[in-house]
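tool_log.txt
---
The assistant was asked to compare two proteins side by side. It first ran the structure predictor on the initial sequence, then on the second. Raw inputs and outputs are pasted verbatim so the downstream comparison step can read them without reformatting.
(1)
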Amino acid sequence: MFGNNKRNGNGVAVAAITTLIAEGTTIRGDVEFTGGLHLDGRIEGAISADGADAVLTLSDKGRVMGEIRASNAVINGMVQGDIVVAERLELAAGARIEGNVYYKVLEMAAGAQINGKMVYQPDADVPRQLPRPDLAGAEA
């Protein structure tokens, strides 16, 4: 899956966790991490991972209100914002996404929900700026 990671009983990859944000914790602001971030709490801001081996794991209790950018991600909670994954994105059955999903490799379980576009990105270099929808009648 993600290198030598193991799978739990639900088939979801388990990465080496270097950072844990526990249930009941709310962070307001952007979060940058390396290694593995396991999120049971809530982040109101953007999440950005550094490194090709970085993995974000969002549990069924976790919530993100902002954009996610990572090399690899396992989502089983709620995200209100775009998700940009350079390598592998795994959407578990409890994933609820309100935003666009940019991915290279996608695994999606039955029950996962996406309200937005799914965009295949064949190159590992994901654009830093996401395309924004054109506003009808807007002057340039």
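(2)
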Amino acid sequence: MRKNFLLFVGSFSVLTVFWMACVSLEARSATLPQALLNAHTIYIENETGFPDLQFVAVLEFEKWGRFDVSESREKADLVFRMDNSAHVRELPEGQVPSPDDNIGADGAVPNGYTRIALMDAKSGQMLWSGMHKTEGGKVKNGHLLDSLRDAFRDYDRGKR
């Protein structure tokens, strides 16, 4: 009888520790930078080469209502940047990119995906980023802002 009681207490302790670890992990994953939480305006910067993605982003931000879309970077709190594996940038005539250029230094984007990132408009510091499946200018599997909305939803749930 005593052996069964000790086994029960031991099992209960392990489950309690496991549950506390899960709650702690969930609380940590639901944190967002304060600059992101305080922001009200957002500027959309499209580096994908697909104007349709910018149109989709504007529509989704307006429907969501969490941020007002700004017409200029200077008037925005955040920059919503979209980029993909096909970075294109204009160089002066006769200039070629050198291996020292930081093209893709912030991490490669797999083909068929678009990286979406929120950056502080003043400092340029990345505050949040995620990937979404796209095919050219078309969004696949849901909405472009799903992972961002999920991050805010998880944060809101965690603070209750």
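---
observation on (2): Residues 14-29, 98-105 have pLDDT under 50 and may be disordered. The chain has four helices and six strands.
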